[in-house]
Structure formats: C-alpha cells, structure tokens
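Dear Dr. H.,

I hope your travels went smoothly. While you were away I took the liberty of generating a structure for the chain from your last submission, since the lab meeting agenda had it listed for discussion. I wanted you to have the full record in hand beforehand rather than looking at slides cold. The sequence, exactly as received, is reproduced here:
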Amino acid sequence: MSAEPFLFPYTVSLHDSDAAGIIFSANLFRICHEAYEAMMAELGFSIGYLLKHRPFGVPLVHLDGDFMQPSRVGDHVTIEVRIVEMNRSSYRVEYSLRTPDGTACARAATVHVVVETKTYKSIPIPEGFRAALSKHYLPE
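The corresponding predicted structure, in token form, is as follows:
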C-alpha cells in the first residue's frame, strides 16, 4: 500500500472569518488542527485516546502558515494532510487548503514531538505509531 495524503473536506464558517469575511489568520491553525485530529483518529491514535490512556504525548512545538488567496465564508476547501518528515522523536505535518478546482489557497505546517507523558521528555516514535503515520508519509 503506497502512502497518500489524508483528505479532510471543510466549509469556511462565519466563526472562521475576520471582518473582511476571509479566514482569520489564527483560525488557519485551528482549521488545520481539526484535519490533524481527524487524521489521527483515522490512524487509530485519536487525540481523545491519547489523552485518556496517555501511552505518549504529541505536543506541538512549531507552526507556520501562508495564505496564497482569500478563502471566504461558505467556500468549500479540501485540506490535504501529509507527514513530510519523521525523525527519531518528531514528525512534521504539512497542510494544503485547496479549492474544488485544486488551487492552493493556504498552507500550514506543524512539528510534533513524541514525549513521555509524565516528564515531557522526548522519546523515540513508537513503532506502531510510526507505522500508522507512514500511511500518509510523503517526504518532500
């Protein structure tokens, strides 16, 4: 089975927008995090499971984003989620928000570190989790 992006359909809502009716910059990260949570659930590592059972944590340690064109209230986008880098204890996720015709309107990236939940010290990515992430691992 070859890797492929995780696809998350999203409709831009009023609460996502600023006074100009386009995605408010900080909400880009919230929207992308919704896609990330859906991907994690699809992989069998839902955020709820991780928080309840605490086998390990995956805190966010870096984020960045860019806007290429406005996304307005009511616009339908698809968020393509890819794991683009996996290291010993961290992984980088990239998000591309695309219009129905495939045009990129925004992009974001996050870096997560796998940690032991009591000490928050980094640990190697557990093999089962690494294998699950590999489903969407498309290095740059």
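Two observations you may find useful: The chain has one domain: 6-136. DSSP finds three helices and five strands in the chain.

With kind regards,
E. W.
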